[in-house]
């Protein structure tokens, strides 16, 4: 007879896995935060360029991350069922799939300047952003490989190692940024190019360290995910691709909404774009806690499916949802009550544009307190759906919510209705709210009922 965990036990299991994963997301995210902060110290034009380039980079990064994220539920389900061979196949061919993806999208980075100009960005801003993106196109390779290894290690519940290795990589990136952007310790002053080069070097070293760890612990050695890695396994490649493509497109739909918002802010002005970037960085930092819980939900749901524990699937889902709701309410209170000090951290105290950017950014961060709640709701539901390998319908829900509702709302509220940046962000809130409701209904109202029907 299956032993069912209590709600407290489920909560503890989610936290033990989710908090280190959230910490690793924060450490990885800090790479971009450090880029934004140091470029803000370097100059407002460079800050705006990194914000613009960052929206483009993460649009591509998270689309490829769909294939890496497919590895997580596949390995979790196989490992819980004792199928080491299948777990190895998923992880190994995940590396193949993301490598192919990086090769496919590299020309977009190499041709960034004319593409950005064609999208209506100012020539000077497009030129600076392209200097960053050309280097980041090559940085995408080790970044994607790290994502796959994180998915594998998460699924086998080695979250603490992920956290420590990611922190070390982020610290190395910060040190290299300091040296290469400003030209300290005899290094050339490379400005925005130095920022991208630091990320490339740090990620190459971080991948090498994570690869060594994946082969080191005794319990991981049987997986041997790098054994005969040069040999293609076409069925496994197709499994990763077919599960990961809807995940990637779902992520693309959401991140594309935020990227489109960034382009709209570029139409308003440099100060507004910089303020948008800063407010989004702060809001994203707290969102990463929910992303860590979402990853834990994916792993726990995948393991429940692998062992046939239907009640455990429901109870674990309830535990992670309650945790996420509590965290989102706390973050909302902080954003609404004290926005200015957080925005000010990203700007040089002597910058003449500092006060204007803080004023704009503080208003946006107060709005972030509202969409923090609905954003958390949609990412948790999405993580649960991925854990049971339900990705195609969530992809359609995301496309409708973000592009059919959120993007038009942002444009109409921001420009025809004259609300400016605040209107653009209210559009984001509306799109995320629709996604949260529909994703939650898909899991709780449809999939869990199907699971109960199967059990009966």
UniProtKB/TrEMBL annotation:
It is found in: Cell inner membrane. One of its GO terms (biological process) is monoatomic ion transport. GO terms for cellular component: plasma membrane. Keywords: Antiport, Cell membrane, Ion transport, Membrane, Transmembrane, Transmembrane helix, Transport. InterPro entries: MATE_fam (IPR002528), MATE_MdtK (IPR050222), MdtK-like (IPR048279). Coiled coil: none annotated. It is a multi-pass membrane protein. GO terms for molecular function: antiporter activity; xenobiotic transmembrane transporter activity. The keyword Ion transport applies. It comes from the Bacteria. The keyword Transcription does not apply. The chain crosses the membrane at residues 50-72, 93-112, 132-149, 161-185, 197-216, 237-268, 274-296, 317-336, 356-374, 395-417, 423-444. This is Multidrug-efflux transporter. It comes from Actibacterium pelagium.
């Amino acid at each position: 007879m299956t032993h069912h965990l209590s709600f407290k036990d489920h909560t503890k299991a989610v936290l033990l896995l989710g908090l280190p994963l959230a910490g690793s997301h924060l450490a990885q995210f800090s790479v971009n935060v450090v880029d934004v902060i140091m470029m803000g110290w370097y100059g407002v034009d460079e800050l705006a360029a990194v914000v613009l380039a960052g929206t483009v980079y993460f649009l591509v990064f998270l689309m490829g991350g769909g294939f890496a994220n497919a590895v997580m539920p596949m390995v979790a389900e196989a490992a819980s069922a004792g199928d080491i061979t299948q777990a190895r196949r998923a992880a190994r061919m995940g590396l193949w799939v993301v490598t192919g993806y990086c090769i496919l999208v590299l020309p977009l980075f190499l041709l960034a300047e004319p593409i950005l100009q064609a999208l209506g960005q100012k020539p000077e801003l497009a030129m600076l952003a392209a200097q960053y993106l050309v280097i980041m196109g090559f940085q995408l390779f080790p970044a994607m490989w790290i994502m796959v290894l994180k998915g594998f290690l998460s699924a086998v519940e080695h979250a603490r190692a992920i956290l420590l290795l990611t922190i070390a990589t982020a610290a190395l990136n910060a040190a290299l940024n300091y040296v290469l952007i400003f030209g300290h310790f005899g290094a050339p002053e490379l400005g925005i190019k130095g920022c991208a080069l630091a990320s490339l070097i740090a990620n190459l070293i971080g991948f090498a360290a994570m690869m060594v760890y994946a082969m080191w612990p005794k319990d991981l050695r049987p997986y041997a995910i790098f054994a005969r890695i040069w040999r293609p396994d076409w069925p496994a490649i197709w499994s990763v691709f077919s599960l990961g493509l809807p995940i990637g497109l779902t992520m693309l739909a959401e991140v594309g909404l935020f990227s489109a918002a960034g382009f709209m802010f570029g139409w308003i002005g440099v100060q507004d774009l910089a303020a948008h970037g800063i407010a989004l960085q702060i809001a994203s930092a707290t969102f990463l806690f929910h992303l860590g819980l979402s990853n834990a939900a994916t792993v726990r749901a995948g393991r429940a499916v692998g062992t046939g524990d239907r009640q455990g699937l429901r109870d674990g889902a309830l535990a992670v949802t309650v945790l996420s709701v509590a965290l989102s309410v706390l973050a909302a209170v902080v954003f609404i009550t004290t926005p200015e000090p957080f925005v000010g951290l990203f700007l040089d105290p002597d910058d003449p544009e500092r006060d204007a950017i803080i004023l704009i950014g503080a208003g946006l961060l107060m709005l972030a307190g509202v969409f923090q709640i609905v954003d958390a709701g949609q990412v948790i539901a999405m993580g649960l759906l991925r854990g049971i390998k339900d990705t195609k319908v969530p992809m359609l829900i995301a496309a409708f919510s973000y592009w059919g509702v959120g993007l038009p709302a942002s444009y109409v509220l921001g420009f025809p209705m004259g609300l400016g940046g605040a209107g653009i962000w209210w559009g984001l809130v509306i799109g995320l709210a629709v996604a949260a409701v529909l994703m939650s209904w898909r899991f709780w109202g449809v999939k869990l009922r199907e699971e109960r029907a199967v059990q009966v």
